[in-house]
Amino acid sequence: MKPYTLLSPLAQSNCVLFNSPHSGSAYTEKFIQLTDLSLKTLRSSEDLFVDQLFSPVIDFGSLMLSATFPRSFIDLNRDCEELDPLLIEDVVVYKDTLKVSAGLGVIPRVVADQTPIYKKRLSIDEANDRLQSFYFPYHDKLKTLIKKTLDSFKKVILLDCHSMPQSSVNLARKKDPIEVVLGDCFGSSCEHEIVIELKDLLTEAGFKVSLNKPFSGGFITKNYASPLNHIHVVQIEILRSLYSHEKQQIKNNEFSCIRSRLLGALEEFIKRFGD
Question: Where in the sequence is the domain holding 117, given as residue range(s)?
């Protein structure tokens, strides 16, 4: 299985790249055999249909990279050394982060509701094979796209696309509901004008938008951003219940409308910042 899908226009015409690292839904039989969980439970970690929400951006001349494999198999929004010693045998070098402690390392130990994924621990060989076959090829491709875009347009704006469950919003904002969260690592991952303009355009499209709360940006945002070198990264989180029935894991009747509003804002953003 190829680790990614790259959607391209006939010719890339702007510096805005789109990335969807958590929308993969190809569950291999080998992976399924390692767990007692149902496919529906495994899919609870997915950013449901995010690739489909954003994919029409190729009509605006942008490139879009998406993972084919699921987040519960490999989490691309983690450092490759965020290996979980409670899951993986014989781990010698690893980063003991809060995500790893929570079971949400680069190879997750649990799904979104903290339910354990595996019947037994994984070997270090299995972990390394996943990294070599899926994690590194994906990130290598993303690096190549960033370099190519920087060479062609002298700047890059990477929009890292995700979705968030209703539960995360309920915890964060009980009285002030939000539908989209933009993360710029509190001002360190892109020029202020870029994220503010994107926030304003999404607000004009009818979305309730928050900046950095409750999500300020993950590994991809922090790792690839270099504003002084003209590489700007913004993480986008869109509320899953806007366009899908979360529990049933299907699109709702608002999917097309939400996508249309989102694309309208993104098209205008690309016109203003894509040159």
Answer: 4-273
129, 135 in Cβ contact below 8 A? no
Please give the tally of structural domains in the chain.
1
Structure-block tokens of residue 39: 């496919």
User: What element of type H or E holds 211?
Assistant: strand 209-211
241-264 pLDDT, tens digit per residue, is 999 999 999 999 999 999 999 999
User: Does residue 93 carry a pLDDT above 70?
Assistant: yes
pTM for the model: 0.96
Angstrom distance (rounded) from CA 267 to CA 61: 10
* Over residues 186-192, mean pLDDT: 98
Kind and range of the H or E element at 238? strand 231-239
Concatenated DSSP letters of 91-124: --S----HHHHTT-SSS-SB-TTS-B-BSSPBPH
pLDDT score of 174: 54
Name residues whose C-beta falls within 8 Å of residue 52's C-beta, 6 or more positions apart in sequence.
23, 259
